[in-house]
From TrEMBL, chains A, B:
Keywords: DNA-binding, Transcription, Transcription regulation. InterPro entries: Homeodomain-like_sf, HTH-type_TetR-like_transc_reg, HTH_TetR. It comes from the Bacteria. PROSITE patterns: HTH_TETR_2. Residues 32-51 bind DNA. Residues 9-69 form the HTH tetR-type domain. This is HTH tetR-type domain-containing protein. It holds the Pfam family TetR_N. It comes from Kribbella sancticallisti.
Length: 184, 184
DNA sequence: TTGAAAACTGTCCGAGCGGTCAGGAACCAT
DNA sequence: ATGGTTCCTGACCGCTCGGACAGTTTTCAA
């Protein structure tokens, strides 16, 4: 009894990896289970053997970024509002650059994410991040500006290859600071 | 020979109206021709009799906003860069508020809009608007910030009913000015 | 070597999609 | 009344999708 069955993990990993690539280039909705299976070199039935439904594949693809987001939220939650905002901006920008490819996937799924129960806490953490980015003033306008910022960032991380990581980083950093830290 | 056959126009209008409502609440991709037909009180074949394909229905739904956008672009194109940017911001915000419901439709279609030939000039006008909003500096960063602004605005106009028109207007105006007119 | 457990697959299913088409119904100038 | 035009529809088509399942192959500890 090995701690983990390597064959199981290997296949799962391959499926997740190929699914990620396909989701990034074609979007979640435009990618079929058959596409994933073909890319992963197995049958569609195998994909469904390892993952109970297409949404479960998506959840596995999103897991690392989800964990990273949760860490940023946890890390910033303990700080006073002003410092938290400051840190959240830079950490969030880093996150966006690191997972830039996955963000278009998120965009594609957003309209239906409320109906997928496996993403409830991801949504909750997104909301929490918004509050932190808003600077904790509780002001309606600032909260909405923070949402605006996230939407802008999500939208801009699409079209991979058009921008280098450094350019994307500068853009997001500039935009977030202009939006969230306007000079008094 | 009447100038227009009223019955034709009445059916067309009903279809477009119901399609607009469905596109807004469920998105373009998640709305089927059958859904539209049922809501409009006719058969799917009738929808296809009046509009040659689903994309044509979308084009009809988007037409008023498209015209309004074209007018804003035309109006601002003649002005010097600084004034043009100033005017574009306020006019674009007004546009966004007026057609706030349709914007989520646009978001839904964006990933595939390049393949729909009927929207080529809409895309072109969107790009032109981006340039005007960027302030005509030609700077890569400012151009990207303008795109960022548009994406943020598009994202925020979703979830109708959560915000009044006035609130949305204030939000978009604030965000665009912070992004595009940062104090020197 | 063997046999149970794990991994995998071919095949089928029902549903929904956008779109076509021949023909029926409504309309209206004559 | 009537005949041609416009409007409308039921039935159908080809296709793709996510998913179910019984049965085969592979794996691996005993």
């Amino acid at each position: 009894m090995a701690a983990t069955t390597p064959v199981r993990e290997r296949t799962r990993r391959e499926i997740v990896q190929q699914a990620m690539a396909l989701f990034q280039s074609n979007g979640y909705n435009a990618t079929s289970l058959q596409d994933i299976a073909t890319a992963a070199g197995c049958s569609k039935a195998t994909v469904l053997y390892h993952f109970h439904g297409k949404a479960a594949v998506l959840a596995a693809v999103l897991e690392p970024s989800h964990l990273a987001l949760a860490e940023v939220v946890a890390e910033t939650s303990k700080l006073p509002a002003a410092e938290a905002q400051q840190l959240a901006i830079s950490r969030f920008v880093e996150l966006a650059v690191e997972f830039r490819g996955l963000i278009s996937v998120l965009q594609d799924v957003l309209p239906m994410i409320d109906e997928l129960p496996e993403f409830a806490d991801l949504v909750a953490e997104g909301i929490r991040l918004t509050e932190i980015l808003a600077g904790g003033t509780g002001s309606r306008l600032e909260l909405d500006v923070a949402k605006f910022a996230i939407n802008g960032l999500l939208g801009e991380c699409r079209h991979p290859g058009e921008r280098t990581d450094a350019e994307l980083h500068e853009l997001c950093d500039t935009a977030l600071r202009r939006l969230l830290q306007p000079p008094a």
